[in-house]
Automatic annotation (TrEMBL):
Residues 7-126 form the Response regulatory domain. The modification 4-aspartylphosphate is found at D56. Keywords: ATP-binding, DNA-binding, Nucleotide-binding, Phosphoprotein, Transcription, Transcription regulation. It comes from Reichenbachiella agarivorans. This is Sigma-54 dependent transcriptional regulator.
Length: 459
């Protein structure tokens, strides 16, 4: 055995036992940590992980009953239910051994031990620990792969030159490990593109982990991405792996990355540079090997100019950029997309084999689609539900008329660019009831950029 035993923690109040065990095991283990005081177990468990824990059953308060050993066994297993614990005692018997195994111990040895027997017991225990880790990894991978398989609308629909250009870029970059930045308006399919890159990559047999950065609060950012140890904060009732650690060997997709505040950008940059994470409540760093894909609908280059997005982080995430065209830039794809969604929702709502008329298709192609493919998808779903006929006609999309009228009215009011910008900003602020952050997001601006425009137009 050459360093086969991994990291071992030994807890015994007899210094001679600790010294003898360390001298024996240091030749076979990567690291041997010894501790005389069992009260330090919570601290040790919170700050590190161990392949095997050797725990004395009897300490000074209670010489022979083993009660202290059982108490500390419970404390260890409460913090790590999969901990591999071997109990040691000089006063063992069959009854106590059976109880120890029932309480969750992996094995039981008597002092003084035979060196060969102790090494054999530890070797078996380490293999058991590794099997636990492999099972956990397989469960996580299985869950993630099942979620991938069950993702709706996996296929990217389109034959326009704009979308074909996106396909060409995907074919070039997918087999590399280059960091990808996907830029595009809301509803253009940024997550679908990220999954297409993943499915064509060398990491497709490992997990794909998606994170909506816009939905994570600042207080939960580190916990969600980097993980935490039990007890590290009020609601930390169990150890939790962060998304970076779960995505190890796989692909990590960070959506809406433009929404991160500068302090969070700094923390993310440090992790991306070092390829290591440190869970909250732990001093132990964990190496991570990921393929990073980021996406945003926000103007990151403008944000760099007004110092609301770090330039060094932008350089880190955009080895290759993919800009997704809006739906109004690929109107020729609308018939294919409409047929695709009609088939899905006809089946979902048991509406038979519905089709769409050529006039209805022309109406869809004349619409501006500010919500892009997602808005088209919802429009088709609504029409399929409400229509009583087998063929969808222009009247089934009556709700689009009002939106087109609003757009035409705003265009007819003036062609002065400053006035148009002023009107659009005012409408965005009104629609969001004065919420500058939401209005800026809807306009595709940073708050700083919007404030400058408000000052410019005297709003």
């Amino acid at each position: 055995m050459e360093k086969e035993l991994g990291k071992i923690l030994i807890i015994d109040d007899d210094e001679d036992v600790l010294f003898a065990a360390k001298m024996l095991l240091k030749k076979h283990a990567q690291e041997v940590i010894i501790e005389k005081n069992p009260k330090k177990i919570p601290f040790l468990m919170n700050n590190d992980t161990y392949d095997v824990i050797l725990l004395d059953m009897n300490f000074s308060k209670d010489i022979t009953s083993g009660k202290e050993g059982f108490y500390w066994l419970d404390q260890i297993l409460e913090r790590d239910p999969k901990a591999v614990v071997i109990l040691i005692t000089a006063f063992g018997d069959v009854e106590m051994a059976v109880k120890a195994l029932k309480e969750g111990a992996t094995d039981f040895v008597l002092k003084p031990w035979q060196n060969e027997k102790l090494l054999a017991t530890l070797t078996s225990a380490v293999r058991l620990k590794r099997s636990y880790k492999e099972v956990d990894q397989l469960k996580i991978a299985k869950k993630q792969l099942e979620e991938e398989i069950n993702q709706p609308f996996k296929d990217i629909i389109g034959e326009s030159e704009a979308i074909k250009n996106v396909f060409r870029i995907i074919d070039k970059v997918a087999q590399t490990d280059a960091n990808i930045l996907i830029l595009g308006e809301n509803g253009t399919g940024k997550e679908l593109i990220s999954r297409a890159i993943y499915m064509k990559s060398m990491r497709r047999d490992n997990v794909f982990v998606g994170v909506d950065m816009g939905a994570i609060t600042e207080t939960l950012f580190e916990s969600e991405l980097f993980g935490h140890k039990k007890g590290s904060f009020t609601d930390a009732k169990d150890d939790r792996k962060g998304r970076f650690e779960i995505a190890n060997k796989g692909t990590l997709f960070l959506d809406e990355i433009g929404n991160l505040s500068l302090p969070l950008q700094s923390k993310l940059l440090t992790v991306l540079q070092n390829r290591q994470v440190t869970p909250i409540g732990s001093n132990k760093t964990i190496d991570v090997d990921i393929r990073l894909i980021c996406a945003t609908n926000m103007p990151l280059y403008d944000m760099v100019e007004d110092s609301s997005f770090r330039q060094d982080l932008l350089y880190r995430i955009n080895t290759v950029e993919i800009r997704l065209p809006s739906l109004r830039e690929r109107l020729e794809d609308i018939p294919l997309l409409a047929d695709h969604f009609i088939k899905i929702y006809s089946k979902k709502y048991r509406k038979g084999g519905k089709k769409i008329s050529s006039n209805a298709t022309k109406k869809l192609q004349k619409y501006h689609w500010p919500g892009n493919i997602r808005e088209l998808q919802h429009a088709i779903e609504r029409a399929v539900i409400m229509s009583d006929e087998n063929t969808l006609v222009p009247e089934d999309f009556f709700f689009l008329n009002h939106k087109n009228e609003d757009q035409n009215l705003s265009l007819e009011e003036t062609f002065n660019l400053d006035e148009v910008e002023k009107n659009i900003i005012q409408k965005a602020i009104d629609r969001n009831q004065g919420n500058i952050s939401q209005a800026a997001k809807e306009l595709g601006l940073t708050r700083a950029s919007l404030y400058r425009r408000l000052e410019k137009h005297g709003l």
